[in-house]
Amino acid sequence: MINYIENEFETIAQNFQQLKNLAPTIQQAANMCIEAFKNGNKVMFCGNGGSASDSQHLAAELVCKYRKERAALNAIALVTNTSVLTAAANDLAFDYIFERQVEALGREGDVLFALTTSGKSINVIRAVERAKELGLKTIAMTGATGGSVKYKADITIQTPSEITNNIQEMHIAIGHLICDIIEKEMFK
Question: CA angle, 178 as apex, 126 and 34 as ends, to 5°?
Fold first, then answer.
């Protein structure tokens, strides 16, 4: 079992080393969010399962603080309103749980940050499509293949793995880095 643990950490380390190649795309995503905030817009997050947790986590970092004391930033996790989620899933279909909220809350110039390890989550894809129709900017964070969401989003950050837990580990690290860049640029 010791060898297994060591090999797992080696895989994680290799994945994180490869993230350096995504630096320009990560900077682009951070800049998109910074522009939205500077223009009085918001950033919305969505995702399923672990990506839902990451959505909440990253929205909280922006609303409260990441590393420095500063003014709150307008960020929302579309995974937290259980009444809306369950009503949309029950009355419409699970595929609409995020799209419906984008329609209600999204405004031109806002950013939708869509997390999906496979890139194939229909409810996330529908949210990205609706966001684009409404004039929102879109960022997708996915695994190595990018799924079909990579063809829909303005920016896609494709992490170098197809293993769900490894993808999620990289997503939260990238999300933290984006929060850090936003704070550094907006609150100098």
Answer: 80
37-to-42, 129, 186 alpha-carbon distances in Å: 6, 22, 9
- Sequence length of the chain is 188
Q: Which ranges of the chain have pLDDT less than 70?
A: none
pLDDT of amino acid 16? 96
Beginning with the edge strand found earlier in the chain, give each strand of the sheet holding 137-142 in spatial order. 75-77, 43-46, 111-115, 137-142, 155-158
Report the SS3 class of residue 86. Answer: helix
Pick the CATH number of 2-186 from 3.40.50.10490, 1.20.120.1200, 3.40.50.300, 3.30.300.30: 3.40.50.10490
* Two structure tokens written together for 85: 């989620």
Predicted confidence at residue 26, as pLDDT, reads: 98
pLDDT computed for residue 138 by the predictor: 98
